[in-house]
Structure formats: structure tokens, C-alpha cells
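Loading example: each entry is read as two labelled lines plus one structure line.
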Amino acid sequence: MPQFDTVTFLSQLFWLTVVFYTFYMVVIRNFLPGLTRILKVRRKKLNLGAK
Amino acid sequence: MISSPLEQFELIPLIPIRFGDFDISITHSTLFMLIALTTFLLLIRMIIMNNGGTLVPNRWQVIVEGIYDLSMMMPHETITGNKGQKYFPLIFSLFSFVLTCNIVGMVPYSFTATSHLSITLGLASIVFFGYAIIGIRKHGIRMLELYYPAGVSLVLAPLIVPIELIAQISRIISLSVRLFANMMAGHTLLKVIAGFAWQMMSLGTALFIAHLVTLAVLTMLIGLELAVAFIQAYVFAILTCIYLNEAENLH
């Protein structure tokens, strides 16, 4: 099976680290705040409507 | 020409990079990992472009908000004592990484990054070592209570310590091998059935009609595999939450 070919492990793990770290940082800095904001606004709007 | 069903997992170096004896070539799996994540980020970008989306969500926004809500609820409900909030970004990125990689792998001629043991082992070791570091920073030496719970009599110690030790070590294996084996088994099965249908089709009229049945089975299996892709991502995230709960609360 190609999965157990240990020669490829280094390149796989190296690029996984690079890609996942970049993804994590980009998501935290740029994407989650935007998503959180709309959900907060919606919750407040719904609460106002309920009163 | 019939090729081995395992051929689809072969890694092909696209851009060879070598530093002495270290080979860090960009391969298929890196490429499809990048494609999956870029698509996902573009989808979010499209939604939050005008000040964070619309108040009444459209269809794409429902998908992203579903993932957001799911990965918000998982740590919130699993990690007791209201400590789950700070793990939300980690769970969100792990869940969306595994989910998008699995889903992109379902497109014909693409590659599933999560069907490789090295990738899933890397993700599992993020969780496992992170869990150990959080536990030790929070509880110090009391982290060892995971191996020998307080209040257990000394007679039982030789029995309970090895059991707990095996349970701890098998976590990293269960996280990585479950994901890898599920993805690999599913893709191999699809390939075998598709090869079977192809052979039946090329054999003659009677079998040509019969091969439609095989194609129907293949279509149903693709639906099953889509479900597996989602369920495995969910299981990965929920197990991460359970382990983090132990690091926070010690049993």
C-alpha cells in the first residue's frame, strides 16, 4: 500500500504542518470575526423582536 | 486495462524539492489539500464580503453557519464547566479541514488527503500532544491521576495503571487509523465496484443490461461515502472535544 511508504512521510507531514498552520491562522484572524459578527447581530435582532 | 484499486493512493511528486537527504516535494495530496481549503475559505469570503453576510442567510451561508454552529456546540456541550469556548477555533479548523478534504476526495479523479496515514497521524498528534500539554500546564503532576484515579485502592494499582496507559496510547491510534481506514476502505470499494461495472459493460449485450444494476449500486455507495465523509469529520472533532475535556477536568 502506498500509505505505508515511509519515504513520503516527511514531505507529507511538512506540508501538512505548513498548510494547517496557515489555515488556522487565517481562519482565526480574518474569517471567524466576520462570521461571529453576523450571528451576534442576528441574535440581538431576534431578542429585540421577542420583547 | 485494469489497474490495482490501490493505485489511486499513489503519491506523485508535482514539484520536486530536495534539501540534501530530505525530500519535501509538493505532491498530489498537498495540491488537493490546498484546493479543498482554498475553496472553503473562498466560500466564507464570499459570505462575509459585505460586512459579515446577510441577516437572512442564503443557501451558501446556511452551510457555513451550520459548520460554525456545530463546531461551537461540540466543545460547549462536551467540555464541562464552561471552558469550551476557547477551543472553538481549533475545533472549527480541525473539523473543516477534515470535512473539506474528505468531500473533495469524492470528486472523481481527485485525491483524498485524509486517506493517507501520515496526514491523519499528523492531525491526531496535534490533538494528542496539545491535550497532554494543556493537561500538564493546568494540573501539573496531578495529570498522572489519569493513570491512577484518586480513591482506588493500592491493590488494584498493578491492574489499573497498565489499562489506563494502553487506553491513553491507543487514543492517538484510534483517532488517526479510524479516519485513514474509513477513507481508504471507501475509496477502494468504489474503485472495485466501478472496475467491475466497466468489465461487465465491455462483455456483451446481456451483461451490458446487468451492468446498470452495478452502476446503481455504485451510485448508492457514493451517497454512503458522502455520509461517511461527514461522519468521520464529526467523530474526529467530537473525540478531540472529549480528550480536551479530560485535560481540563481530569475525568
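The mean pLDDT of chain A is 88.
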